[in-house]
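Dear colleague,

Thank you for sharing your sequence with our group. We've completed the structure prediction you requested, and as agreed, I am returning the results in plain text so they can be pasted directly into your records. Please verify that the sequence below matches your submission; if there's any discrepancy, let me know and we will rerun it promptly.
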Amino acid sequence: MSIPSGISGRIGEVCRTFLARTRPATAAGKGGEAVPSLVIVDDIFPNLVSAFRVAEYNYYLEQFPDAQVRSAAALVPFSTNWRRFRGWIEEYERQYPGFRGRVTLLGAFGKIRCRLMYLIFINNAYRFIEEIDQAGIPFAFTLYPGGGFHLGQAESDRKLRRVFSSPNFRKVIVTQKVTRDYLLQGEFCLPEQVEFIYGGVLPSELLQARQLPRRRYPTEKGSFDICFVAHKYMEGGIDKGFDVFAETARRLVAVCPDIRFHVVGTFGPSDLPSGGLEGKVTFYGTRTTDFFPSFYAGMDIILSPNVPFVLAPGAFDGFPTGCCIEAGLCGVAVFCSDPLALNPCFIDREDIVIVPSDPARVTEIVLEYYRYPDRLYELAARCRDSFLRVFDIRRQMQPRLQALLSCMDGQGEKEGAAALAQEKGEEVTA
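Please find the predicted structure tokens below.
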């Protein structure tokens, strides 16, 4: 993975200076070996399907030359899981040979030595909290939507309180305003322990590097193409709005025979209602990042009418979903729902289109742009520009690196803050 210059280079310099200064004082291994600055523990990595993990963890591996990732993906018995893990490792190291040997199987926590452990999702933090406490490892984690975090639910709250009560807990990064407000209003932790960084880490530099010229309707292609990108987590995919997507598609093909639909993820033909969509929908299965630049070059709209609290009580998605962010970065117009009013900075009908979970109304909105495609492509260009301002990987990682440095060492926090102050114009404050 090639890390951009500028912010990344300056922060990397801070990280390396910090490590060089503190290594002798913090060596704790047998024989006085240096203690790694950062150990990441994850249950899916290095599966390349999880693009946001690959983007974020690779960035840390680049910035902290001694950082390691310990994967729990193979811990479920027995040999089939080990073979799956080995396959993931081999594919990951083929694509990122510079990180060869730095992703290994998670072993006993008592053997881990590091200045800081990092995890994502409450389920991961809770799963390992007893071992973390027994080993006395300081840790930080990102509380993304999903992964066991459900608003107003007793079991989710119990996990949160257990993790936040740990004497080894240092900081939580939250990506949605509703998450920050929930933690502070519920007094789960101290305000200074919460780092609010809106958005998410996506492989923006990879998508930009491989982006292809867009094919426009009707001059450069004969079809108007709408895509839906998501994993199926429940029957009918109601949480992701697949039912709304399918009914919208049925309504649109009845009046626009040149509209086509495309589905990426774990949905298939059996998920479609019978009648009306024969030959109009293409399914691609699950894909990794390298598939999407060419795919999105031919897409006009990504439709994501997801709804909260149906997958499970209190469950919700971030705004917009990671798939929508990737599509927007590639120049596709994003049509998505926002039932929890999570949108902090995007203007409806200027650089994004907010849609309801109502197939009839979604159909009307899509037809407005289908009839005037120039308006759609102007909106898509603004969407791409606004998403780059907010979701560019450098802008997302800048405050994350600062947050982790602040957990490792007080002086590291000061140096990190000083370096970041020089890049003040790059910061996202949404």
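Summary note from our side: Confidence is low (pLDDT under 50) at residues 1-8, 21-31, 411-430.

Kind regards,
the structure core
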